[in-house]
Design goal:
The protein is α/β, with parallel strands linked by helices. It contains seven helices and 15 strands.
């Protein structure tokens, strides 16, 4: 099926749209509902079903989730309600939507989209997609193949999870200038490079719209470029994950 529904489950909003998986284009305007609080499995499943119903969707679909997801089951809860741990998200969301649902880590979904249609297109070396937002997400590709659930935002930098020092939310909360924030990002990217020696780093998340303010301040061996799909990456990647599942 060329057209699939992609739903991006985030900390503040749950949004979706039908995607032409041959081109990566949304074929209808995005529909967004605020994420329920607390974001319990039942509440999130109901909201996802509302997004699906908005499009009168009856076929299979894909959904991102901000946690480690193994074979449809949630394994961590760094940025979601802890009641998700151990839940079969694919079955839960599938029951709510009345359709087969493929669930994938949110950063992995963004990476899948960027590799297919964005800054990573035609790259077959080692590529890391880093999403800077509430936390730091990562997606690693070797020879065009995803290494799932890398969770490299939890690397230890100065005794803290990297995302607690260098996420976009930290820059906003601490009032860091882009120059100050770039110093923290340089520490983080240096740690990534020491581990994986990527050829390309793609920086995503909403802040990538302002990449000109901080990418020139980064000092890396690898090429660093902004993501191209911006806020649509999760939706597109979710649909692509459903296509290949």
């Amino acid at each position: 099926m060329a057209t699939l529904l992609g739903i991006d489950i985030g900390g503040t909003g749950i949004k979706g749209a039908p995607v032409d998986t041959r081109t990566g284009e949304l074929i209808a305007p995005r529909f967004r509902i605020p994420t329920p609080h607390p974001a319990t499995p039942e509440a999130v499943a109901e909201t996802v079903a509302q997004v699906s119903e908005h499009f009168d969707w009856t076929g299979s679909l894909g959904a991102t989730f901000p946690a480690v997801v193994q074979h449809g089951t949630v394994r961590t809860a760094a940025n979601v309600d802890e009641s998700w741990i151990g839940k079969d998200a694919a079955s839960l969301l599938g029951a709510a939507c009345g359709a087969a649902v493929t669930v994938v880590n949110d950063a992995d979904a963004a990476g899948i989209a960027e590799m297919e249609f964005g800054a990573g297109k035609h790259r077959h070396d080692t590529v890391i997609v880093v999403t800077l937002g509430t936390g730091i997400g990562s997606a690693v590709f070797v020879g065009g193949t995803l290494v799932p659930n890398t969770e490299l935002g939890h690397l230890q930098i100065r005794g803290k999870d990297a995302e607690r020092r260098a996420a976009e939310s930290v820059r906003e909360r601490e009032g860091l200038s882009f120059k100050q924030w770039a110093k923290r990002l340089n520490e983080y990217f240096a740690a990534l490079e020491a581990l994986l020696w990527p050829d390309l780093i793609i920086v995503g998340g909403g802040i990538s719209k302002k990449s000109a303010k901080f990418l020139p301040l980064l000092e890396t061996r690898a090429d660093v470029v902004p993501a191209q799909l911006l806020n649509e990456a999760g939706i597109v990647g979710a649909a692509l994950a459903a296509r290949v599942s």
